[in-house]
Amino acid sequence: MRITGTFVNTVPGDIPAANWGYEEWDRELELMKRIGIDTLILLRTGWKEWLCYPSKYLQAKMDCFESLYDYLKMYLSLCEKHGLRLFVGTYNSNHDWLSASYDVDYEAEIIMKSAKEMWDNYGSSPAFGGWYMTQEISRKESFRVIELWQKVAPYCKEISNGLPILISPGMAGVKSGNVHPRMAVTLEEHRSDWDWIFGQISGIVDIVAFQDGHVSFKELENFLAINSELAAKHGIECWTNAESFSRDIGSTNFPPIAWEKLIMKLEAAKRTGHSKAITYEFTPFMSPNGNYPAGKYLLERYCEYYEILYKNKVQEKEMA
Fold first, then answer.
1. pTM more than 0.90
2. Helix 143-159 and helix 187-201, axial crossing angle in degrees, nearest 10
3. Hey, which end of the chain has fewer CB within 10 Å, N or C?
4. CATH code at position 76
5. Which of 213, 89, 217 is nearest to 156 (CA)?
6. DSSP class of 290
């Protein structure tokens, strides 16, 4: 199963900044297109006080810093040029939704007003292909996020004439944060939680792409089968988010994954009926232009396996 979508991110969190502008991203999207990527997901348009577009609303409401460059406009322009669609990530305040003080109405208002601002300013672009809800939950205990989505997702669909809503949750497995192996979710616990969650967001969220890196490799296919089964039950399209970084080396150091592991995950998703594979994230972990030298070789091995001829003469010279 080939990767046909990727996250992109210009508001750094745990991944080093690329510090690219239009020319560098133009080259990158041209490469993505050649290997079969047709979908970009902008991870977030804002996080805490940082923004990737000039939002007058968030600067005033959340005391955000002024964005010196309009990355949202740039991505939409480049997606138009290269024939890709862009899912636009919502603003994320980073307030703890597991805290009793989390105010769903307050958070929803911020997200909806910033989404309306984005749609009014950028919605005319034919590359604006959907919305991405930035909250990454894994269990039923995050019910406040479900309440948030029930408010925000229908609003985003309404103002954008029905554009699809995408989420990319985690799975609370042995690699999920600081979870002790004995505390990791079981298959039946995962099934129970997500059967309930999907029941709450059916008709609101259109696409789910579970992050595949939190569970052990031996359990992964069973988890993927449950994801596919439950999504079909509740009328939600099921993608896989095949992480192209490794969670097996340290807790915060995320280098490119071993290529055999990436292929294993993609083929497991294919066998379990997933309709599309996206990755977090192509540029730092698979691109020859990214932050990690090993990314070049991950792309080489991936393309060899799937028999993708992606190099033009310029790239052959650059990668020699």
1. yes
2. 40
3. C
4. 3.20.20.80
5. 89
6. S
Rounded CA-CA distance 298/300 in Å is 5
Question: What is the domain count for the chain?
Answer: 1
Tens place of pLDDT per residue across the chain (320 aa): 999 999 999 987 778 888 999 999 999 999 999 999 999 999 999 999 999 999 999 999 999 999 999 999 999 999 999 999 999 999 999 999 999 999 999 999 999 999 999 999 999 999 999 999 999 999 999 999 999 999 999 999 999 999 999 999 999 998 886 666 667 899 999 999 999 999 999 999 999 999 999 999 999 999 999 999 999 999 999 999 999 999 887 655 789 999 999 999 999 999 999 999 999 999 999 999 998 999 999 999 999 999 999 875 445 445 44
Which residues span the domain enclosing 277? 3-318
Q: Shortest CA distance to 177 belongs to which of 148, 139, 145?
A: 139
